[in-house]
Amino acid sequence: MKKTLLALAAAVLCLVPALARAERLTDKELEKLISRIASEEDRFRDALDPQMKKAIYRGPTGEVNVERALEDFSDAAEKLEDRYKKDYSASTEAADFLRKATAIDAYFKRDQAATRGESEWNRFAENLKVLAAAYGTAFPMPAGAPVRRIGDKELVAAAEGLARDADRLKKAVDTGLKQDKSIDKTTREASVRDIDLLKNDARALKSAVADGKPATATATQLLGRVAKVEESLGRTPVPAASPILGVLGGKASLVAQAFGMSSPPAR
Questions:
Q1: How many other CB atoms are there within 10 angstroms of residue 242's CB atom?
Q2: Of 3, 5, 43, whose CA–CA distance to 244 is shortest?
Q3: Domain residue extents for the chain
């Protein structure tokens, strides 16, 4: 158990620095980005050489009709814009769109002279990188990469759950450490205080996300706090706290994923 806790804490601590690189898009910001991509997709197609649209090239999976590929790409962009809603993150539609965009990107990156529309595509692709990050992947999209958006509502629920779990954990740890006469008062109070701070961080994250405010720094602090609590309980285990810590760790993993971090290992 101790090794598992320490491994989980170390994983979270290693992942936290990555969080500072980019701010997570809120649902409203993502909606605007998707609409902008759908509009710019039209301009990109208009900029292409008409002859190029009629071309057929051999891709990794066989011959590709460029015109048909562009039509499929346009349809996927429209479908993503239509289906993305506050209560539906459209992860399936985003995955389909990003796969089609990756195929077009591969076409432009072939060994050939620059073609009309390539510059427009390169500019367009910058937005696709942001879109991919919002769905937990990269652009160009690696084969078989999972694509999932943790929306604001789901993230708020996770933060709220973390605060509740912290309350339960505090009671279990305080009781357990009081019963262990080998644990001094200073160590017990420090452990309980860290759990209180974790609860405060969870509430702050919930508030920031619910209000549409930047929340990356708050999430960084929360995940660091989770790691610290788990490391502390790895040194001084409390049997009654272990199942609560497992539930709490699952919600922390979801928060990490929402902010573009890999999930800690399963307990």
A1: 16
A2: 5
A3: 2-23+151-258, 27-134
Helical H runs in the chain?
A: 2-15, 27-47, 50-53, 66-83, 91-108, 118-134, 152-179, 185-210, 216-235, 242-258
Judge contact between 81 and 38, C-beta under 8 A: yes
Do residues 259 and 166 touch, judged by C-beta distance below 8 A?
no
Residue-wise pLDDT tens digits, 101-144: 998 888 887 755 456 677 888 889 999 999 999 999 999 999 99
> Could you tell me the pTM of the whole model?
0.84
Partnered with residue 56 across adjacent β-strands are 65
Torsion of CA 84, 133, 13, 229, to 10 degrees: 0
Q: What angle do CA 17, 23, 28 make, to 5 degrees?
A: 150
Token pair belonging to 180: 């262990």
Q: How far apart are the first and last CA of the chain?
A: 9
Q: Which residues contact 253 (CB under 8 A, 6 or more apart)?
A: 263, 264
Written as six digits, the tokens of 38 are 């759908």
